[in-house]
Design brief:
alpha/beta; Glutaredoxin; 4 helices; 22% strand
Length: 130
């Protein structure tokens, strides 16, 4: 179903671009699942953007396998990534993660796989902002 990040205004949003075919994405998925569950109801919303999968079947299997419970958008051609401000995301660098602050501005960015410690180092200061 359609999703608008504006629906999460007032929350910190973690946007993770991933693909089921991507080894580093598989590696970081457990950390994203763990942090998203630990921070559920605490002002932090995760949203995935699944890219370059040829159908939703491997994407759904990936989410089940890794315990991903937050919404993911299916973006097989990368069009959603192109809607971000130029220089924000590189469609060639998967996985990529953005942390969007409560005002809708990009507060942090990683163009590599993350573990839970690194992810929390990006998220916690943004959550602490008034």
């Amino acid at each position: 179903k359609p999703l608008d990040v504006a629906d999460y205004k007032g929350k910190v949003v973690v946007i993770n671009v991933w693909g089921s075919w991507c080894g580093p994405c598989r590696e970081e998925a457990k950390y994203f699942s763990k942090v998203s569950q630990a921070y559920e109801g605490k002002g932090l919303q995760f949203v995935g953007i699944n890219t370059r999968d040829t159908s939703t079947t491997p994407a759904v299997a990936f989410e089940k396998e890794h315990g991903i419970s937050y919404p993911s958008l299916y973006d097989p051609t990368g069009k959603l990534m192109l809607r971000f401000k130029k220089g924000t995301l590189n469609p060639q660098l998967i996985p990529s993660t953005l942390v969007i602050d409560k005002d809708g501005k990009v507060a942090a960015r990683a163009l590599e796989a993350l573990d839970d410690t690194t992810l929390l180092k990006m998220v916690k200061p943004v959550l602490a902002e008034k």
